[in-house]
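Ligand-bound model needed. FE2/S2 (inorganic) cluster.
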Amino acid sequence: METEHVDVQRRRILTAGGLVLAGGALAACGGAGSTTTEATTGASASGAPAAATPTTAPATTPAAGALASVSEIPVGGGVIVPEPPIVITQPTAGTFKAFTAICPHQGCLVSEVAENQIVCPCHGSLFSAEDGAVVQGPAVEGLTAASIAVQGDSIVLA
Ligand code: FES
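Prediction:
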């Protein structure tokens, strides 16, 4: 059996418009519930070229200790950070939201964010990228909000 050691900051799953760029394996367990959050930035006014079509995310390396770079989270999409298990979304330009990436149904790691919905691959639950609420079951509880902050081009835990 080979051991794979991957920098957890690089093990993110970038998703947008149904496109999934997988950087890590699924993790089934964990818990990272915390408080409600919303972080905003003036990213849309900076002339970033990714504003037109949220189908791919630019490959920008976040700062050390950051969960993700602002520029890698497409509008309508998101980034899934496996450790700690957090999904970061940008439901509208310049507004970032974060939730635990562990599905409350049976504990699977969510797999993608497309068209402002967070997808659980295990049984098909869908959650709002705006507030984490259940859009489609079988999950009956929404995703717990996580507290983040935008620091320059980085998104960090708050
Ligand atoms: Fe997510 Fe069942 S674990 S839908």
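The radius of gyration is 14 Å.
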